[in-house]
Structures are given as C-alpha cells and as structure tokens.
Amino acid sequence: MTPDELRAQLAARPAGTALFTDFDGTLSPIVADPAQARPYPGAVDALAALVTRFHRVAVLSGRPLAYLDPLLPHAIDIAALYGLEQRVGGVHREHPEAAHWRPVMAELAADAARQLADHPGVTVEPKGLSLTVHFRNAPAAADAVLRWATAAGALRGLHPRGAKASVELHPPVAIDKGTLVTEWSAGADTVAFFGDDLGDIPAFTAVHALRSRPGVQAINVLAVSDETPEEIRGLADAVLDGPAAVTALFRSLADR
Ligand SMILES: [Mg+2]
Question: FRET pair for 60, CA 20 to 30 Å: which of 3, 89, 178, 181?
Fold first, then answer.
C-alpha cells in the first residue's frame, strides 16, 4: 500500500489500533556511534500524542532499557533487549527467566574484549542481559567477529542474532519482537509494526500471522535505507523512506 493508504488505514479506527515501532533505523537515524543515536526530531512528541488516542503504542528494541528510558516519555511503553526488559505504564520490569544470565553475559563481555582486542574499530557493547559487537567502523573484521560470536555463543548456550554491521548474543529466553507484537496487540483490530532490520523479522512474521485473527488487519511497514537487508523487503506491506518519513507519518496521525 502507498504511504497515503497506510495513513488512512491507521487513522480509520485509532481506538482499535495497536502501533509498534522499532527504534534504531526506524524512529532514530543510524549513526556511526550507536551511543549517539537519538529519535528523529518530532518523532517522540508525535508518538506520545498517539498514546491517548490509540489502543496501544510501544517501542520494541534491542537496546537496553537504560538507554531508551530517558529518550521516551513514560506514556510510551517500551520492550527493551527484545522484551527481556520492559517499561509498561511507566513501571520497569525484567523477564523472570533473564536475571540469572547477567553473570554469564558479564563474563562474555570480558571474553569479547580479550578475543577481539586485535581488531581496531570493533566495539563491544555490553547491555547487561545481552551483548552487541559492532563492526561498522571495521568492516574487514566482520568475519572474525562473527566467528567469535558463533563459538562464544555456542559454548554458553546463547543465541546469536545478526543486525546491521553488528552481531548480538542473547540468553535463550523465549521472547522476541514477534511474541511481544502478538501479546501486546490483544484486543486490537488493527496492528501495525514499523521496522528496518533483521531483528524485526519475528515481528513482521507475527504480524502476518495475526491476519488469521477474525476481523484483524495487520500491516508491516518497512523503514528503508541503503542498508535494508534483501530478505525483509518481501515482508513489507508499505515502505517509508527511513526515520524522516516514519516521523512524518506519526506527526500527520497526531495532528488529525
Ligand atoms: Mg532497527
């Protein structure tokens, strides 16, 4: 569907519409230093304005809650670290199966720093309950990083997940953006998910599956960039040109 058709669908029945969005690359432009990523100007205010009108508005991200919490007002619910950490109604909570993985992840971060020290430009980002290793500034080290992640993850029973110029390792807890979309859209008759990357595939897949709920319309929106992985293009019902166009859509919905 075109952006105008998408806007019309989302504006048709706001009280029955659940709107979920990824953060990096969807709400927030990709930047060289991930610690500097900020929401596109106007995006947060628009989302916050939609909270009172829509069935549910939530940000689903692989970032830790400590990063997202100060950037998003409490009205907007957050699933951080793919749901391992959540802020719902302003209250912080952690997945009950996640806590005992903290020491494992801390030891993993130390191992990454040791094993990847010979690759300048590779950055290890410990996230408490998960770990991301970035090779955006060291593309030649990609193979070495992926080899380390595969071996180190297998040794500890962790799950690797690919993302843009990075790899993430997660505890084997059965929660991801897909289970979150399914659970948090209960009672909605329209569900929209906005994403841009491989970590969003479970959500895109869950949105497709929601179409089997009677009377439910479910829409996948892809925020495209030069780096959009080929395998997710085919999952999109609508395509928007990055965080700027996503923000423009949210603002137009908020202004109605
Ligand atoms: Mg993203």
Answer: 3
pLDDT in tens, 175-228: 999 999 999 999 999 999 999 998 899 999 999 999 999 999 999 999 999 889
Active site residues: 22
Q: What is the pTM of this model?
A: 0.89
pLDDT digits (tens, 9 = 90+) for 13-24: 999 999 999 999
Report in angstroms the alpha-carbon separations of 116 from 95, 107, 121, 123, 222. Answer: 30, 14, 10, 9, 33
φ, ψ dihedrals at 212, nearest 5°: -80, -10
pLDDT at 89 over 80: yes
Q: How many angstroms is it from 244 CA to the middle of ligand 1? A: 14
The domain in which residue 70 lies consists of 3-95+174-254
For ligand 1, the distance from its centroid to the CA atom of residue 97, given in whole angstroms, is: 25
Q: Which two tokens stand for residue 19?
A: 């709107």
Find, among 180, 58, 197, 66, the residue nearest to 129 by Cα. 66
Cα R_g (the chain), whole angstroms: 18
Specify the CATH number for the domain of residue 155: 3.30.70.1020
CA of 226 to the centre of ligand 1 (A): 13
